[in-house]
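Extended Data, panel c. Modelled sequence:
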Amino acid sequence: MILCGLIMYPAWAQEILGPSYPITEPDMLEAIQDKLKSMEKNGRLGQLQKEAIERSKQSIERPDPVKGIVKTRQPRTFYFDPSWRVPRDITTPEGKVIARAGDMVNPLDYVPLSNHLFFFDQSDPKQVKKAAEILKRFKGAVKPILVAGEPLALTRQWKRQVYFDQSGHLVRRFGIKQVPALVSQEVAQRRLRIDEMKAD
């Protein structure tokens, strides 16, 4: 009986499951390779590569301006305390505890701010002039930081490093809303002074 069932299997299986067909979908990798070869032949691939390189250069030469920052309308001075609460014990590789969970730690106790930080918008000539004045006043002990403009072009022009606050991380951290703004550590103070000032 079992043998009879095995011999008859193909016939009834075909009726229940239906006929099978070969897979006719094209291989995805082959389709992509064919598309790339076609684009290479007609020059479109080379054009896309040039455009990608140009976009990369533009993003480096002229990053997107930091959003939410305006030219100083009402000058103000405020302070920033960089202290933070330790979330968990911090230990050395040897297991020595150097900070316990819950401790308040102020980085300025260990590494003072050795340079002033000056945030400004290069698209405003008055702010660029103010930045040059600040550099001169503090004898170069300043890190110029753009919130808009071309940091590499200004670096070449001034022959000194000009930074850019990518995504506005620093201005948000310090609470800066207006530029130009000067960040300084007053002598023997465990906090930072921030001056949002007029450029003229």
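Residues 44-61 form the longest helix (18 residues). This feature is highlighted in the accompanying rendering.
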